[in-house]
Design brief:
The complex is a heterodimer of chains A (about 55) and B (about 725). Chain A contains three helices and no strands. Chain A is mainly α. Classes of the chains: A mainly alpha (about 55), B mainly alpha (about 725).
């Protein structure tokens, strides 16, 4: 059943490439947005382990 | 303004996990030293089946990974989670069920593995009832983890917690899929997948046990304890975001690099290689983030033993994660696979990264929880130095041994024959290296003993704070409001459920892409018409082979290299393994490959050779490092489970005819009589040998790799 379904999809090879491109672009966008994030924000968050002693 | 709430952190659970980590660290490493010595003095098992190398090796790996590092993880998580979330653990009861449950699992492993109760799948050797208990306890840990996250007072989740969440979900997925097995008795089971498919599932699991048990939780711990010890924030919070997502996504694909040049289809091998090479980027991102956190604090590294341990731990992580991608390149892997290079690689990770980071945590936590100073900084420094020396004395000889043996395996004479045709010669060459390795391991172990003494004295001079008071503003329930202009990733950083969901999706992709086509497409495992299921006696012999842990030293996978086909015979094909449950390809050749050991192959030996060799290997191979197995000729052959085994295998797809289970015992006895007759003809005086375990094992060994010859004979006819 599964075998039939997988083999009968037209151009199933294309799915792999689409997935790769999709993941790669999401990763790049995420990385760029992270790099461009406000440093003050992230610096404050990086302090968290040091602020935990109440 | 929210009202300020007062609460207490639970230190008792942290201490309990810390003590357990130390105790099991000692046990696991002591077994390691014993194993190292057994590889020099094979009789060191003292003639006892339960203390023989094959059975003790999984005890060593399980004790170090799941008992030492496992308890180390929980110690780090229970301490940092409470403080980062400004909340006591969700439920003290669950904390203690988790603690005792985990120790019961370890105890069950320590009892069952030497008894030979094993699935033989590396790092998943425990039998199915223990697998169920692991699942249960992991769920308890999960409820406690997410319960604490939900009742937290700090809306933002620090990067360490993302790693804890990813660890929890991935280990759950890995454990469940790897443990898909059908029981045939109280402790016995057969895996759902067979042969090449099982190999893929196994190394998807095995490699990610390294990734998500030995790495991600310790990275989380690093992101908390390193800033604490250095008293400065992590070098780059942005880098930690990229590090986290890239690492968990890429890691899961890397498993097939354990199966390079095997019968696994090339496309899966290539995926494994590509993703393993990519892994260097996030791994080094994390490593550099750790080391650069210390910039401006290097003067303190000279004085503070905690920071010293951390620096070497992170450096070892960097070395191991550089080496890993290199070892995933096929030509390099050809050298490392099956040799001691792999052993060196994993020990740089285990002793350096996991060991030293655990010691750093312990040395940092104990004085704080006992409200005192470390009993002796000097002793901690000695521990650091002999530990470091121990790693060096362990790793270098193993690298040397691996390369030496590989080049001996593949050396040809000008006439075109193997220069070292006798496998044993290549082993004896590296025995001195095994000796130095044992010294390295002993040094490392001695350091641990000093550590235990130091922390014991620290505890004695201080007063334990079982409950540490703290206060923090209450948090409004629900997700934190997204503020205008806030940087984008904060959205998910305050939403644990979404974090869990996204992590689950990311870690699932690699496994799905690799495993599903392998399992569901017949074209991926071409069948060989002459390959038939094992006979009942061979099946029994195979289970004895599994019980004794033979797979720890003998592979059953001939790679398509001239040096291997020349030495062992025709290279292995995936179709030959379709009835192998579990697969027994192995990952280390301390002894030769056994894929073509069976009758009719060029290396085949008479039954009497196997008999004598099992009683005392050195009568057949002078100087051999194999332990003797005289009990195989003494223990009676137990065929009572055969019908259940046959039925289970048939349910899983092995084509045993209906009703075969009723004839199986009689057929086994008949074949055993044939073996006994052969032995008698060959001059072995062993009355009743057909009723002993050794008959079944000989039957299995004589079957190995023989089915493809049936094909040749048939074609000739």
């Amino acid at each position: 059943m599964y075998k039939y379904l997988l083999q009968s999809v037209d151009g199933i090879q294309l799915y792999g490439i689409v997935t790769l491109v999709l993941f790669f672009s999401v990763f790049c966008i995420a990385a760029i947005r992270t790099i461009l994030a406000d440093k003050q924000d992230t610096d404050r968050l990086a302090q968290m382990p040091l602020d935990d002693e109440a | 303004m929210s009202r300020i709430e007062q609460f207490q952190y639970d230190n008792r659970i942290v201490r309990a996990f810390g003590i357990a980590a130390f105790i099991f660290g000692i046990v696991g490493m002591l077994v390691g030293v014993v194993l190292a010595l057994q590889l020099i003095y094979p009789n060191l098992n003292l003639g006892i089946p339960q203390t023989t190398f094959g059975r003790l090796r999984p005890l060593h790996t399980n004790a170090v990974i799941f008992a030492f590092v496992g308890n180390g993880i929980f110690m780090g998580v229970y301490y940092s989670l409470q403080r980062l979330l400004k909340a006591r653990m969700f439920s003290d009861t669950l904390s203690w069920i988790h603690f005792w449950g985990w120790q019961v699992i370890i105890l069950a492993a320590a009892l069952s593995l030497p008894m030979g109760l094993t699935t033989s799948s590396e790092y998943a050797e425990l039998t199915w009832p223990i697998d169920l208990l692991i699942t249960l306890i992991w769920v308890v840990f999960g409820i406690n983890l997410f319960g604490t996250i939900i009742k937290r007072r700090e809306s933002h989740l620090y990067v360490a917690i993302w790693f804890y969440i990813a660890t929890w979900v991935t280990v759950a997925v890995l454990h469940i899929v790897r443990s898909l097995e059908v029981p045939y008795s109280l402790f016995g089971s057969y895996p759902v997948f067979s042969g090449v498919q099982e190999a893929l599932v196994q190394w998807w699991y095995g490699h990610n046990a390294v990734a998500f048990f030995l790495t991600t939780p310790y990275l989380g711990v690093m992101y908390y304890f390193l800033p604490k010890a250095a008293n400065r924030p992590v070098y780059s919070y942005k880098l930690s975001i990229i590090h986290f997502w890239a690492l968990i996504f890429i890691y899961i694909w890397a498993g097939p690099h354990h199966l390079l040049y095997s019968s696994l289809p090339d496309w899966v091998q290539s995926l494994g290689t590509v993703f393993s090479i990519m892994l260097i980027a996030p791994s080094w991102g994390g490593m550099l983030n750790g080391l650069l956190t210390l910039r401006g604090a290097w003067d303190r590294v000279r004085q503070d033993p905690v920071l010293k341990f951390m620096v070497v731990a992170i450096t070892a992580y960097g070395m191991a994660t550089f080496e890993g991608p290199m070892l995933s390149i096929k030509s390099v892997n050809a050298i490392s696979h099956f040799t001691d290079w792999t052993i060196a690689h994993v020990h740089v990770g285990a002793l350096g990264w996991n060991g030293f980071l655990t010691f750093a945590m312990l040395y940092w936590l104990w004085p704080r929880m006992y409200h005192t100073k470390l009993y002796s900084e000097k002793l901690a420094n000695i521990h650091f130095w002999i530990g470091t020396l121990g790693i060096v004395f362990y790793a270098i000889p193993m690298y040397w041994a691996g390369w030496t043996q590989y080049f001996m395996w593949r050396e040809f004479t000008p006439e075109g024959t193997l220069a070292w045709g006798n496998f044993l010669d290549t082993v004896l060459q590296i025995v001195p290296m095994y000796g130095i390795r044992a010294i390295g391991g002993t040094l490392f172990f001695a350091g641990v003993i000093l550590g235990v003494y130091n922390l014991y004295k620290t505890a004695q001079q201080g007063a334990f704070m079982a409950n540490e008071s703290a206060e923090a503003p209450a948090r409004d329930p629900g997700p934190a409001p997204t503020l205008q202009g806030e940087y984008w990733h904060r959205w998910i950083e305050s939403r644990p459920i979404q974090m869990l969901l996204f992590s689950t999706i990311l870690i699932s992709v690699g496994g799905i892409v690799q495993i599903i086509p392998m399992v569901f497409l017949d074209s991926q495992t071409p069948k060989i018409s002459t390959v038939k299921p094992y006979t009942p006696l061979e099946l029994t012999g195979r289970d004895i082979y599994i019980r004794e842990g033979c797979v720890g030293c003998h592979s059953q996978m001939i790679r398509p290299f001239r040096a291997e086909t020349e030495r062992y015979g025709e290279y292995s094909k995936s179709g030959e393994y379709i009835y192998d449950r579990p697969f027994l390809w192995g990952s280390k050749r301390t002894g030769p490959d056994l894929m073509r050991e069976g009758r009719g192959n060029k290396n085949a030996k008479p039954d009497s050779w196997h008999y004598n060799h099992m009683i005392d290997p050195r009568t057949m191979s002078p100087g051999s490092l194999m332990p003797p197995y005289p009990w195989l000729a003494e223990h009676n052959l137990d065929l009572s489970e055969l019908p259940a085994k046959i039925k289970t295998l048939r349910a899983l797809g092995t084509p045993y005819p209906r009703g075969f289970e009723d004839r199986a015992v009689a057929e086994a006895q008949e074949q055993a009589k044939e073996i006994a007759a052969n032995l008698k003809t060959e001059g072995i005086k062993a009355p009743d040998v057909d009723k002993k375990e050794i008959a079944a094992l000989i039957a299995y060994l004589q079957r190995l790799g023989t089915d493809i010859h049936v094909a040749k004979t048939a074609t000739k006819k």
